[in-house]
């Protein structure tokens, strides 16, 4: 009995020692399961021969190998070995001495050949060796579960035959730490516990596809063994649901033209997750025919693509050959685009892998893809994509020098949208006859002259009458407006109807429409005259009486369509000047101190582009009578004509403009003239009367469309406040009197802001009344151009004024030596420009035009991160979590101002409405900034807006108060800056350094 007790005590002591001497940094699993099917036993045990540091499991090639416990893969080596390298081993490796496994040790027998090592917890490793090549199912870094199939058994390397060599290493990852696996393994197999899959990315290879291309999708997921693609078409719904792998391709032709979104469902036996959606568009290539000539106008800038000294840039409309391009269709539907100036081709410089920012240039023809372009129509415009890229399109810079280059497609960005003005006729382009001249038009087919015959255009024998003399005025698009010198009327294609037999009129009003503009083409020893409304039809004079001039399809060397332009000497009439010009509700009014009949007055105003004044209400009547009273005698005879009559229907008065005759101010007992008095006049009292068409009344012309004027007189820059550009503008009276007039501000990214002119502050500058136009500018867009123009309620627009924050800041820097205010602001201006430049770099904005380009002393990158970090002593405080919400962290949003965005884990996926109903939300900061809230999936966020540069170091609090538990967070923008400076992202670090320096400079400026 004593002996038995002694033995038991010895065992206890030994076990106690084992527990005691086990290093504290080793944690063993509770249970290690069999590495192969439990029916397979151990054929060679641990230490069964010298150097055997594991157990062998003899089995044929191809049995599943399982992880013995949960862990992380630290080695996964597949040397490609297919068999044994021993003389007594089988099967032999097919690669022989060329097998990479032979280089694993000195004896050339291949060692483990193909093997996996898994770390289990702390300092415990399992090794699986001699595996079948290409059977490894895991890679380094993968997390595996106990019982998970990781490979197949093999017979590779230093083996006599097929088996699995298994080791268990405790205390370190080498053979010196190998222990007898039989002491730890349990002869059982388990089914691994599978977690639902996750994904980290999903993308479509680009955005714009034409019907000849293939659309490819890729998902990056972990733990997924099943994938399904879902593709939806806008306006239609689901069009594709198919099982697939982690990649999926489909022909764009199968989908058809349209706008699409897609996502993948990634799944395994434990569940599934849907990726986010990606968006793309399928568009058919435009087919304009085999050959044509056109001008190409950029919608964002209004400029035309121009060949300037072999550089392709944007320029204002000129109508010359430097802006005319010849398109020649290729076999694949793309076009080469040749300049009509010098025969050079549009070319994007790169044979392949075109980078964003690659210039479009004019180059000699090479026949390469870089000189072919696909054209697509969407968003009511054309996009132009070089044939050697799938992602970039032709883009025009927002400001001088309006460089034309390739950039990533940005849907609906004006700088990438174009319209084509078809100007060619076959291989011929418009001919320049001169800017302004007088001439006769003689038809070669009839030998008659184009004549104004009481408003109709027809042929007649030569006369000395002004009805055959026409004034030609070249427009900016290269077309000509043709005005008759007899009555000032204009050649006009009736009703803009592009059809054979459409009549040509001599219309008394210039509309500016394309049916009154004409291109001249020199061919067949004559000129063909084509209105801009048509691509195929030209002016044609009937060969027989009445020799009418009409529109017809162009013939082949057809005499009635061939004209001579015979220039003559002539001078304009010295037309009368108005005694007063005034504006009312956006309309322009001109009073002439000349008397004439109603019919003559009507024609007089129409020749000037207006009409006899019409009156719609009492206010306008008072305004018109005021003009009359200020300039004409109060005598009864000093009446003016109004644009009303009842000639069409006796007793029913109407305005010549067709507008409703709803207001009247008749003198008592008027109208009384019956059929003899059919025309409307205004007395000196402002009352109305009906009279005959007789002389003695004066003329007041009204213009419904007047181009508004804006004249910048001064500018200023918000420095210590948010980044804002202030322009002080004189605005013309017609705009100020138009309640519907709008200021249109277009940012460099094409974003348009519309605000009523009346909403801007009115102030004075040098004793002049001006409007202060304020535009807020994101930091990354300081170098981008801003454009300003006025849009009146009648649709007329002013000219455009273009400027930028960077340009104005540069002027302040140049003036710092002579201007004290600029000198004081100099450190802040420099810090602001540095902040703008590093914002451009970080956010990928126009890196070719950095905001701080003028500076010679950019020291941002030299500021030491550790110095800033040491200066930021504040740390976040509060109650960070409850049952619904858990604070995750914050980020900064850099725009014209800075916003601090705080993120919370929305544990129960509450809606924004539910959160606001459950919590009293407020912010605590001394300047009371506005804030927004929102929910994005499982994230609830609060964004504190409008933080000024000098406020970046302030503390901001967010309170979500509830009786059931509150969440309170106090933080500062500098907390995010500190974290960013501790990251490894150098671009983000430089941005935060620049932001910090900008904030410090703003504080100093405000002292």
TrEMBL record:
Protein name: Peptidoglycan DD-metalloendopeptidase family protein
Signal peptide: none
UniProt cross-references to InterPro entries, sorted A to Z: C-type_lectin-like, C-type_lectin-like/link_sf, Cell_wall_metabolism_enzyme, CTDL_fold, Dup_hybrid_motif, M23ase_b-sheet_dom, Ricin_B-like_lectins, Ricin_B_lectin
Domain C-type lectin per the UniProt entry, residue ranges: 584-702
CDD domains according to UniProt: beta-trefoil_Ricin-like (cd00161), CLECT (cd00037), M23_peptidase (cd12797)
Top-level taxon of origin: Bacteria
Record SUPFAM superfamilies: C-type lectin-like (SSF56436), Duplicated hybrid motif (SSF51261), Ricin B-like lectins (SSF50370)
A GO molecular-function descriptor: metalloendopeptidase activity
């Amino acid at each position: 009995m004593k002996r038995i007790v002694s033995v038991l005590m010895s065992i206890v002591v030994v076990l106690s020692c084992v527990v005691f001497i086990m290093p504290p940094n080793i944690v063993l699993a509770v249970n290690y399961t069999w590495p192969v099917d439990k029916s397979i036993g151990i054929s060679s045990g641990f230490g069964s021969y010298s150097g055997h540091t594991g157990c062998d499991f003899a089995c044929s090639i191809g049995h599943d190998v399982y992880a013995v416990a949960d862990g992380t893969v630290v080695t996964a080596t597949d040397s490609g070995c297919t068999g044994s390298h021993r003389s007594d081993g089988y099967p032999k490796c097919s690669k022989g001495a060329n097998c990479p496994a032979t280089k694993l040790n000195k004896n050339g027998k291949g060692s483990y050949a193909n093997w996996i090592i898994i770390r289990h917890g702390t300092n415990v490793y399992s090794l699986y060796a001699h595996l079948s090549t290409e059977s490894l199912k895991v890679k380094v870094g993968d997390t595996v579960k106990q019982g998970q199939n990781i490979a197949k058994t093999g017979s590779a390397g230093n083996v006599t035959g097929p088996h699995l060599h298994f080791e268990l290493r405790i205390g370190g990852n080498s053979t010196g730490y190998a222990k007898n696996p039989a002491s730890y393994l349990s002869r059982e197999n388990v089914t691994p516990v599978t977690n639902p899959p996750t994904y980290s990315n999903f993308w479509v290879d680009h955005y714009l596809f034409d019907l000849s291309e293939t659309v490819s999708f890729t998902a990056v997921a972990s733990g997924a063994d099943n994938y399904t693609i879902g593709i939806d078409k806008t306006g239609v719904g689901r069009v594709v649901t198919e099982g697939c792998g982690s990649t999926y391709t489909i022909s764009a032709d199968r989908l058809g033209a349209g706008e699409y979104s897609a996502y993948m469902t990634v799944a395994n036996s434990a569940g599934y997750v849907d990726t986010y959606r990606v968006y793309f568009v399928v568009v058919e290539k435009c087919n304009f025919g085999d050959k044509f000539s056109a001008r190409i106008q950029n919608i964002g800038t209004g400029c035309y693509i121009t060949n300037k000294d072999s550089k392709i840039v944007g320029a204002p409309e000129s109508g010359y050959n430097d802006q005319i391009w010849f398109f020649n269709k290729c076999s694949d539907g793309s076009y080469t685009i040749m300049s009509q100036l010098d025969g050079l081709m549009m070319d994007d410089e790169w044979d392949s892998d075109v980078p964003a920012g690659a210039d479009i240039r004019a180059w000699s023809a090479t026949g390469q893809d870089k000189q072919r372009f696909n054209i697509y129509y969407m968003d009511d415009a054309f996009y132009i994509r070089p044939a050697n890229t799938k992602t970039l399109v032709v883009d025009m810079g927002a400001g001088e020098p309006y460089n034309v280059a390739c950039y990533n497609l940005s849907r609906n960005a004006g700088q990438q949208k174009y319209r084509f003005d078809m100007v060619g006729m076959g291989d011929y382009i418009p001919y320049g006859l001169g800017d302004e001249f007088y001439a006769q038009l003689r038809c070669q087919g009839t030998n008659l002259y184009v004549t104004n015959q009481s408003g109709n255009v027809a042929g007649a024998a030569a006369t000395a009458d002004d009805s055959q003399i026409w004034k030609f005025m070249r427009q900016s698009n290269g077309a000509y407006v043709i005005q008759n010198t007899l009555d000032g009327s204009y050649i006009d294609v009736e009703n803009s109807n592009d059809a054979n037999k459409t009549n040509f009129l001599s219309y008394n009003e210039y509309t500016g429409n394309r049916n009154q503009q004409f291109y001249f083409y020199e061919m067949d020893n004559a000129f063909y005259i084509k209105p801009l409304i048509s691509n195929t039809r030209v002016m044609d004079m009937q060969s027989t009486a009445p020799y009418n001039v009409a529109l017809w399809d162009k013939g082949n060397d057809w005499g009635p369509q061939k004209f001579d332009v015979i220039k003559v000497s002539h001078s304009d009439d010295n037309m009368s000047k108005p005694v007063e010009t005034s504006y009312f509700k956006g309309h322009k009014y001109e009073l002439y101190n000349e008397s004439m009949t109603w019919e003559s007055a009507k024609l007089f105003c129409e020749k000037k582009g207006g009409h006899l004044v019409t009156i719609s209400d009492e206010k306008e009547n008072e305004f018109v009578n005021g003009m009359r009273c200020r300039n004409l005698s109060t005598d009864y005879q000093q009446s003016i004509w109004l644009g009303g009559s009842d000639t069409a229907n006796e007793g029913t008065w109407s305005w010549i403009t067709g507008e409703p005759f709803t207001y009247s101010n008749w003198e008592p007992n008027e109208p009384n003239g019956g059929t003899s008095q059919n025309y409307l006049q205004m007395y000196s009292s402002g009352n109305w009367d009906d009279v005959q068409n007789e002389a003695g009344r004066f003329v007041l012309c009204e213009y419904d469309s007047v181009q508004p004027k804006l004249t910048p007189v001064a500018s200023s820059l918000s420095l210590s406040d948010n980044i804002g550009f202030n322009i002080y503008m004189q605005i013309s009276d017609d705009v100020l009197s138009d309640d519907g007039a709008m200021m249109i501000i277009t940012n460099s990214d094409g974003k348009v802001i519309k605000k009523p002119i009346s909403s801007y502050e009115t102030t004075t500058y040098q004793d002049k009344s001006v409007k202060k136009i304020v535009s807020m500018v994101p930091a990354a867009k300081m170098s981008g151009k801003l454009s300003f123009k006025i849009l009146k309620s009648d649709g007329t627009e002013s000219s455009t004024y273009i400027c930028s924050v960077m340009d104005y800041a540069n002027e302040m820097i140049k003036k710092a030596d002579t201007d004290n205010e600029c000198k004081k602001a100099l450190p802040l201006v420099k810090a602001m420009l540095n902040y703008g430049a590093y914002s451009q770099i970080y956010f990928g904005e126009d890196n070719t035009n950095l905001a701080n380009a003028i500076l010679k002393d950019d020291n941002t990158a030299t500021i030491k991160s550790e110095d800033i970090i040491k200066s930021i002593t504040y740390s976040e405080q509060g109650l960070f979590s409850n049952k619904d919400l858990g604070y995750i962290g914050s980020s900064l949003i850099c725009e014209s101002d800075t916003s601090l965005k705080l993120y919370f884990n929305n544990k129960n996926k509450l809606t924004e409405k539910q959160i606001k109903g459950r919590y009293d939300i407020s912010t605590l900061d001394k300047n009371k900034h506005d804030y927004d809230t929102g929910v994005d999936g499982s994230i609830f966020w609060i964004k504190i807006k409008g933080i000024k540069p000098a406020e970046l170091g302030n503390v901001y609090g967010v309170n979500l108060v509830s009786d059931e538990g509150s969440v309170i967070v106090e933080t500062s923008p500098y907390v995010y800056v500190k974290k960013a400076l501790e990251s490894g992202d150098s671009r983000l670090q430089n941005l935060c350094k620049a932001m910090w320096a900008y904030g410090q400079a703003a504080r100093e400026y405000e002292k």
